[in-house]
Write a sequence for this structure.
């Protein structure tokens, strides 16, 4: 099995340990070969990093992800794996994403000011069709 590891730079040691376990561990698949991602400290351009990581993803049978929920490079690599229809295993996902921060902040401050009221649930785009269709649902006028 060929595995490409993708992820955020701060997880380099975790990714290296994971690669070592895949190749040399007692439960490692026979003939497992691993490629680590090219990270931000690579002595090339951002485009070079994208090409090299894409080559690793294309080569792989499976992609393993270590992501902090914020790294745009790791997100781009994930999107490439998705577009190439590669199976992705989320090995490590950091729980501190921007969405988590917004939810936490909103819930804390909502209850400080509106004690006793229920918090409004998170809405999605489909909850606001009049904004998505350019305002035509709101009597044909744009907001």
């Amino acid at each position: 099995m060929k595995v490409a590891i993708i992820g955020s730079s701060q997880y380099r040691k975790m990714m290296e340990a994971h690669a070592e376990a895949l190749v040399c561990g007692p439960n490692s698949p026979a003939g497992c070969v691993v490629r680590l991602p090219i990270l931000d400290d690579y002595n090339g351009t951002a485009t070079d990093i994208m090409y090299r990581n894409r080559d690793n993803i294309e080569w792989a049978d499976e992609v393993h992800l270590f992501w902090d929920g914020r790294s745009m490079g790791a997100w781009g690599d994930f999107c490439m794996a998705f577009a190439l229809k590669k199976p992705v295993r989320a090995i490590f996902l950091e729980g501190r994403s921007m969405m988590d921060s917004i939810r936490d902040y909103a819930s804390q401050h909502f209850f400080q000011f509106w004690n006793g009221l229920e918090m409004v649930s998170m809405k999605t785009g489909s909850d606001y069709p009049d904004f998505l269709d350019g305002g035509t649902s709101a009597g044909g006028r744009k907001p």
